[in-house]
C-alpha cells in the first residue's frame, strides 16, 4: 500500500499510539526521546486548523518543559492576569459572586494558568515528534481491530475512507489517545461513567482588530437570560462561549449572525474583530471505568471528559501522558516490573475525578436558567463574600489516587505529602541560573535543603538510584546548587521537611529528613520491582 509516512518506518514498534493530538504527540516525544520505537496513527490526513482547548496550567507547562517544548516556545503561552485572581464569576447584573485565584504563585515554576492557541502547539509537537529518528507518524489511517497476546498488541488499520485494504501494525504496548469518541476504547470494551451534566454551548473564537481591555482573564457571566463566558485564549486571541437556551435550536445557534449578535453587548463587531471559528459543543463530564485493558491504555479525552469551566481538560490529558510514559519506559528498559502499570489508572482516575466534580459544580452555577433559582444562588454566593477567605478560592489541587507509587504512610515530618505535586523553582549552578529541571534535571529527584540527601545512603543504593536517572541535590544559600530566590526553603518550611523525593511526573514519592532517605529509596525500589495489587481490568480474553 502506498501510504504517507513521516519519520522512521518500522515493522515492529515498542509503542503504538492512536491519535496525533497533543496527548498522543507528547507521549510519542517522551517515549521517542528515550530511544523507543514509536508508531503514531492518526485518522485525519492533516492537523485540525481551528482552536479547541485554550487554557493550560503550570503543571502542564512543566510537563511540556520536560519534553523540550518550553526552551524555544514559551511565547506560545499568555499568563493569566487581571483583578480578583484573574477568574471571576459574576451574575447577570455584573455583581461578583466568586473569584478563583488563577494568578497564584504556582509550584511548577510557570504561571499558574495561561492562554494558548492549540493549532500552534500541535504544530510544534508534531515537528518535534517527527524529528526523532525512532518516531513514525502515519496520518490518514483509522483503527479497525485490536488483538493482544503475551508479547504485544496488533492493531489493524485501514486508509481513512478506504476500508477495502487493511494493514497490521505491531507494538509491545498501545496508547489510545484518540479523543472523546475513542474507537480503541470501544474495541477493547471499556465502558464510561457519566457525571450527569450536559449542556450545549456555542464556542466563538475571534481575533481583535483593536486593543481590548478585559478586567479578568476569564469571566463567567451567570445570567439566566444568557449564560456566557469570556476568556483570553492565547496571544492575540479571544473566546466567547454562550449556553444554548431551550428556545434556541442548535441550527440557529450555529449561524455566524447569531455569534455576532451574542457578542454585541461586549462591543465585538465585524468592524473590530475577525471571526475565526464558531461551533456548538456539548459540554459534559464522564470517565472510563478502567484505563487499562491488557496492553492497551487510555489517555486524554479517551479516558475522561470534563466541562471546560476550569480549563483543565487538556491539562489532565498531558498529565496522563507523563504519568504513563515514565512507567512504560521503565518497564521496557527492565528497570521496573509490569505491576507498576496497574497504578496508572488508579492514580489518574481519582485525581481527574476531583477536577471533573469541581468543573461540574461550577457548571451548575453558571448554567442556571431559572430566574428564581438564579436569584437564590446570587444571594447565597454574595453572602459568602462577607468571609474574606471566601472572596478568592484556590483552583483544585488533588492528590494521586490509591493504590499509588508513593511512600507508605509513616509518622513524622512530611508524612501527608506523598502523592501531592512537588516544586520546581529557580536555582543557580556555576553561574548558570534557570529552572531546576533545566539546570539540574533528573527523572527522580532527591532534594535536600541545607543537608546532603545521600548522607545516610549506602553506595549500592546510590548506584541503583543513579541507574534509574535519579539525581541527588543539596540546595543551600552558598552552593554548589543555590536556592536562587528562596522558594525551595519556603516550600520546605511550609511542609515541615528538609528532604523530598519526586517522581518523573513531578508528584512527591515522599518527604522527610536526610535520615529518611534510605527508607524512601528502598521503599521506591521495592515499589518498582515488586507486585502491586491488581486494580484494573486484566488482559483481554
TrEMBL record:
Instruction: Tell me a Gene Ontology molecular-function term this record carries.
Output: 3-(3-hydroxyphenyl)propionate hydroxylase activity
| Keyword tags | Oxidoreductase
What is the recorded name of this protein?
A: 3-(3-hydroxyphenyl)propionate hydroxylase
In terms of NCBIfam families, this protein maps to: PRK06183.1-3
Q: Which InterPro entries match?
A: FAD-bd, FAD/NAD-bd_sf, PheA/TfdB_FAD_monoxygenase
Coding gene? Answer: mhpA
Pfam families assigned to the protein according to its UniProt record, in alphabetical order: FAD_binding_3
Q: Output the GO biological process annotations, alphabetical, semicolon-separated.
A: 3-(3-hydroxy)phenylpropionate catabolic process
Whose protein is this, by species?
Subtercola lobariae
Q: What region holds the FAD-binding domain? A: 14-358
Amino acid at each position: 500500500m502506498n501510504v504517507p509516512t513521516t519519520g522512521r518506518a518500522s515493522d515492529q514498534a515498542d509503542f503504538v499510539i492512536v491519535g496525533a493530538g497533543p496527548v498522543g504527540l507528547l507521549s510519542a516525544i517522551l517515549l521517542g526521546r528515550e530511544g523507543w520505537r514509536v508508531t503514531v496513527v492518526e485518522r485525519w490526513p492533516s492537523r485540525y486548523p481551528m482552536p479547541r482547548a485554550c487554557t493550560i496550567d503550570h503543571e502542564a507547562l512543566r510537563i511540556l518543559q520536560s519534553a523540550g517544548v518550553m526552551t524555544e516556545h514559551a511565547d506560545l503561552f499568555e499568563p493569566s492576569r487581571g483583578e480578583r485572581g484573574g477568574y471571576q464569576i459574576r451574575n447577570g447584573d455584573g455583581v461578583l459572586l466568586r473569584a478563583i485565584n488563577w494568578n497564584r504563585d504556582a509550584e511548577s515554576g510557570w504561571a499558574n494558568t495561561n492562554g494558548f492557541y492549540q493549532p500552534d502547539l500541535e504544530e510544534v509537537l508534531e515537528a518535534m515528534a517527527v524529528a526523532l529518528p525512532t518516531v513514525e507518524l502515519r496520518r490518514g489511517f483509522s483503527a479497525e481491530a485490536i488483538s493482544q497476546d503475551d508479547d504485544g498488541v496488533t492493531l489493524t488499520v485501514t486508509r481513512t475512507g478506504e476500508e477495502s485494504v487493511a494493514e497490521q501494525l505491531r507494538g509491545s504496548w498501545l496508547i489510545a489517545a484518540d479523543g472523546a469518541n475513542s474507537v480503541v476504547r470501544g474495541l477493547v470494551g471499556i465502558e464510561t461513567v457519566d457525571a450527569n451534566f450536559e449542556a450545549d454551548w456555542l464556542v466563538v473564537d475571534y481575533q481583535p482588530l483593536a486593543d481590548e481591555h478585559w478586567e479578568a482573564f476569564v469571566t463567567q457571566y451567570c445570567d439566566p437570560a444568557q449564560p456566557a463566558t469570556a476568556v483570553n485564549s492565547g496571544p492575540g486571541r479571544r473566546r466567547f462561549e454562550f449556553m444554548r437556551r431551550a428556545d434556541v435550536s442548535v441550527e440557529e445557534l450555529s449561524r455566524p449572525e447569531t455569534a455576532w449578535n451574542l457578542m454585541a453587548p461586549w462591543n465585538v463587531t465585524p468592524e473590530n474583530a475577525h471571526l475565526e471559528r464558531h461551533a456548538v459543543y456539548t459540554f459534559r463530564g464522564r470517565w472510563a471505568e478502567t484505563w487499562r485493558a491488557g496492553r492497551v491504555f487510555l489517555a486524554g479525552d479517551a479516558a475522561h471528559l470534563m466541562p471546560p469551566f476550569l480549563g483543565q481538560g487538556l491539562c489532565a490529558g498531558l498529565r496522563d501522558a507523563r504519568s504513563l510514559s515514565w512507567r512504560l519506559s521503565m518497564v521496557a528498559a527492565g528497570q521496573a516490573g509490569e505491576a507498576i502499570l496497574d497504578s496508572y489508572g488508579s492514580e489518574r482516575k481519582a485525581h481527574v475525578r476531583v477536577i471533573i466534580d469541581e468543573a461540574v459544580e461550577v457548571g451548575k452555577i453558571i448554567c442556571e436558567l431559572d430566574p428564581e433559582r438564579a436569584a437564590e444562588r446570587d444571594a447565597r454566593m454574595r453572602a459568602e463574600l462577607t468571609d474574606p477567605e471566601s472572596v478568592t478560592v484556590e483552583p483544585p489541587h488533588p492528590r494521586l489516587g490509591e493504590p499509588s507509587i508513593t511512600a507508605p504512610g509513616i509518622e513524622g515530618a512530611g508524612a501527608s505529602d506523598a502523592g501531592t505535586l512537588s516544586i520546581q523553582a529557580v536555582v543557580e549552578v556555576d553561574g548558570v541560573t534557570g529552572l531546576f529541571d533545566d539546570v539540574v534535571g533528573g527523572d527522580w529527584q532527591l532534594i535536600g535543603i541545607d543537608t546532603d540527601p545521600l548522607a545516610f545512603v549506602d553506595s549500592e543504593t546510590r548506584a541503583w538510584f543513579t541507574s534509574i536517572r535519579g539525581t541527588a541535590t543539596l540546595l543551600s544559600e552558598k552552593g554548589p546548587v543555590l536556592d536562587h530566590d528562596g522558594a525551595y526553603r519556603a516550600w520546605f518550611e511550609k511542609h515541615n521537611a528538609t528532604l523530598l523525593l519526586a517522581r518523573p511526573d513531578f508528584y512527591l514519592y515522599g518527604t522527610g529528613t536526610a535520615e529518611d532517605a534510605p527508607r524512601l529509596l528502598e521503599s521506591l525500589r521495592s515499589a518498582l520491582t515488586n507486585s502491586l495489587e491488581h486494580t484494573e481490568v486484566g488482559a483481554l480474553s
